[in-house]
Specification:
heterodimer; A: alpha+beta; Gyrase A, domain 2; 4-stranded antiparallel beta sheet; 4-stranded mixed beta sheet; 20% helix; B: mainly beta; Cyclophilin; nucleotide-binding (chain B); hydrolase (chain B)
């Protein structure tokens, strides 16, 4: 791990891999809850964790802590996402993967996903779990409107659009699961660390 | 209650925003010129986190159904009460129209009403987030706004800011300054592009040279981050910025407040802070 400065009150922790990102995210969250860390925001990314709103001396504090071990962290909660696999780009994804549409659906259904980080829109989680070799390119031209609940792929990430928006991800399915509700204590269904299974909707 | 009689191009409800939810993809939002909002709130006896209105270049006009104490700060503008110019703390009688004119200097005026704009908070804030759509909709003609009950006594807090023709912004390099030719950011001036908005201030000038090829995996970004997209023209993130980004951040501007009031065409120079 390496700590980079991000302004007067920000630190960016560079991690080895996404597992270490999750381990640091958990550890920093726990330490903040325990009153050992002051930070306004703890924001995981693909390979980093950003701390925003930290007092001076926080970098030294982080360096004094042992690196959290990804192997020892407890699993996050599991969310099953009832999914209808009928996305407009499912056939293209199957072709990119050189498998049948049925096999593509089976791959998605059988993958153990975890929310690596959020971004793009409130409650939009980047789900990792697909192997790198199944990464798919974004659409050359984004769609002006992707409906809420669309299950989609870009790179090796899966994402579900919480609200309708423009988007360049490849649509493989849809869900009616409510992904973001500001009235809930935990507004985002798919927050970092949550494990996700795409379950065929009946 | 307030009825909007002239909304202006972009007038929004703003308070100090909703920090603390960036990990869920929720932008911080909030007033772009925080000191101006604080000052307006202090002038009418509101707590610093009360919601006010932020106008953009053209001001707005409001009819008050009940008497209210109002203060206007930020961009320099002619303020009229029932067509008569006024200034300072304004006691608006019931039924009167307050008109905040177009900005003569600066961009954004802040209107505080004693008791605050009392729309329903979303995730702890009444701010309109123009990126995600959280919070109240931007003001439209005929829209109505509830006002909370006035509490405190007026305080005069600080003095109005000056809006220079040229800005010098302090920047701390990093986290991704090693993706660029060293010091280049500090060499030439930039101009503020008319494409700027509440999400970011776009700059135009000599393109920054990338010394590293490849794509940056998405990572968290913060207020004031100077992001450099593929065309090399820097973009400074303001209150409604996305929470993660895929372009390298060369440095972070220490105080983005002057950008809230800087017009397109304004010259910007960067100065290194350590």
């Amino acid at each position: 791990m390496r700590i980079r400065r991000a302004g007067a009150a920000g630190l960016l922790i560079e991690c080895r891999d996404s597992e270490q990102v999750e381990a640091w995210r958990r550890e920093l969250w726990r330490r903040r809850e325990a009153g050992e860390l002051t930070a306004t925001d703890i924001v995981p990314g693909a390979g980093t964790v950003l701390l925003d709103g930290v007092p001076p001396g926080t970098a030294e504090l982080l360096e004094s802590w042992p690196e959290p071990d990804p192997a020892t962290i407890a699993e996050g909660p599991l969310v099953e996402v009832p999914t209808i696999f009928d996305g407009e780009d499912l056939a293209d994804v199957a072709e990119l993967w050189r498998v049948s549409a049925e096999e593509a659906i089976a791959r998605l259904r059988d993958t153990d996903f975890i929310v690596a980080f959020c971004g793009f829109a409130p409650g939009f989680g980047y789900l990792r779990g697909l192997p790198e070799e199944w990464a798919v390119p974004r659409l050359a031209a984004p769609r002006p409107r992707v409906p809420a609940g669309s299950v989609a792929l870009a790179g090796a990430y899966c994402g579900i659009y919480p609200t309708a928006s423009p988007g360049g991800w490849r649509l493989v399915g849809r869900t009616t699961l409510d992904l973001f509700d500001v009235r809930r204590e935990a507004p985002a269904t798919l927050s970092p660390g949550v494990r996700v299974k795409l379950v065929p909707a009946t | 209650m307030i009825t909007v009689t002239r909304s202006g191009p972009l007038t929004t409800v703003q308070d100090l925003g909703r920090p603390g939810y960036a990990h869920l993809g929720v932008p911080r939002s909030g007033a772009l010129d925080v000191p101006a909002l604080r000052r307006a709130n202090a002038l009418v006896g509101n707590p610093p986190d009360a919601a006010g209105l932020e106008t953009t270049l053209m001001g707005c006009a409001l009819r008050f159904s009940a008497a209210a104490r109002v203060a206007v700060t930020g961009a320099e503008a002619v303020v009229k009460l029932d067509k008569v110019p006024v200034d300072g703390v304004i006691d608006v009688p019931a039924g009167s129209v307050l008109d905040v004119g177009r900005a003569i200097k600066g961009v954004r005026s802040y209107i505080a009403v004693a008791g605050g704009i009392d729309v329903e908070p979303v995730l702890g804030s009444r701010s309109t987030d123009t990126l995600s759509g959280l919070g109240p909709a931007k003001l439209t003609d005929g829209a109505t706004l509830p006002v909370g009950s006035a509490r405190g006594a007026s305080l005069d807090e600080g003095s109005p800011a000056d809006y220079p023709e040229e800005l010098e912004l302090g920047v701390r390099l990093g986290p991704r300054d090693d993706w660029f030719a060293q010091r280049e950011l500090f060499v030439t001036p930039y101009r503020i592009s008319p494409m700027s908005n509440r999400i970011g201030c776009r700059l135009a000038g000599s393109a920054l040279t990338r010394t590293r090829i490849g794509e940056l995996p998405s990572e968290g970004v913060l207020l004031g981050a100077v992001q450099v997209p593929a065309d090399g023209q820097p973009l400074i993130f303001l209150a409604d910025h996305p929470t993660t980004g895929g372009y390298p951040v060369i440095g972070v501007v220490d105080d983005v407040t002057p950008l809230a009031q800087a017009r397109p065409g304004t010259t910007v120079r960067f100065r290194a802070l350590h």
